[in-house]
Amino acid sequence: MTAPSLTERNPLGTETPPILDVKGLWKVFGPKADRVVGTTLSRAELKEQTGCVAAVRDVSFSVRRGEVFVVMGLSGSGKSTLVRCLTRLIEPTAGEIVLDGEDIRQADEKRLRELRRHRMAMVFQHFGLLPHRCVLDNVVFGLEIRGVPKQDRYVRAREVVGLVGLTGFENSYPDQLSGGMQQRVGLARALAADPEVLLFDEPFSALDPLIRREMQNEIIRLHHEVGKTMIFITHDLSEALKLGDRILIMRDGELVQIGTPDEVVGAPADDYVRDFVSDVPRSHVLTLRWIMRDPLPDEPLDGPELGPDVVIRDAAHSVMSAGRPVRVTENGALLGVVTSVEILEVIAGGQS
Ligand SMILES: Nc1ncnc2c1ncn2[C@@H]1O[C@H](COP(=O)(O)OP(=O)(O)OP(=O)(O)O)[C@@H](O)[C@H]1O
């Protein structure tokens, strides 16, 4: 399938300014790492000839303000290294990282600590909650180390505890909470400092599937409420498709594709991505924009209207029962039509 043009279908609008710009980022582990930057050797050749591992190879991307940006790839593809390089928890070997105008690579240690506390906060898989402190005090602790004045700490802590759905549990201790609830405390702690960007490193991979789903929904709800920019690492495609406004797919340290969920599923960049997405029900991810066509000369154009970004599955009932072409319109303009034929091709054509 051919991807609809980016400007047409970018839900956040291409005009949304980036909050984070990464250009030509490399992280090489091993001796004389900087000499390896720019190499075209394969992973095995590099290891054999230099003893180095290029965990991140020439990766460039921008994250837009307010988007959920997912970094996805198999184990060892370089996701954690990439995201840790953003705040220099791992020192990059080469490249540029600019956060809202600030050159992160120029920051000294003191500035880096401030950045990690106030601008780009990381939410880890293990939140490291303090067992002898109750929920509220765990969140307050996060504010304490960020230097928030004492009188403001409890007000803010109560606010974010409410935001993550833990009202009533303020005085509980971590060992009295389920895994999912402990995650919420960690989340509250990160949110309390109100950083511009939240970085999540596989935060839910240790949770059982039901709680995991609950936490994913929680992230979506929180994102709606606070609209914060989030960079989210996962190796789970369904999680990436569910949460991501855009997904960056990595393989062996390299960027393979950046795209919205429907672009990744509808127009995979190569066989690696195609393989990744082969089990995804296309009708659950692709939108009408992908299947609409020009109206035929004699087709009636008085059918119902739907927007181009309606997911095919959600449109199926209306289109199938319309009895005439459904018009796909945007801002009053007719973009194309969809009939049950196009819907059935996706659902029944071996690509549903
Ligand atoms: N400190 C290190 N020294 C040497 N090699 C490293 C180091 N840290 C990571 N690597 C290597 O870099 C590559 C990328 O690792 P990274 O942990 O970033 O991948 P990942 O996609 O996050 O994987 P996972 O999901 O398993 O955490 C791997 O080959 C790994 O072995």
UniProtKB/TrEMBL annotation:
Keywords: ATP-binding, CBS domain, Nucleotide-binding, Transport. The keyword Signal does not apply. Residues 41-277 form the ABC transporter domain. One of its GO terms (biological process) is response to osmotic stress. Pfam families: ABC_tran (PF00005). One of its GO terms (molecular function) is ATP hydrolysis activity. SMART domains: AAA (SM00382). CDD domains: ABC_Pro_Gly_Betaine. Transmembrane segments: none annotated. Gene3D superfamilies: P-loop containing nucleotide triphosphate hydrolases. GO terms for cellular component: membrane. Belongs to the ABC transporter superfamily. This is Glycine betaine/proline transport system ATP-binding protein.
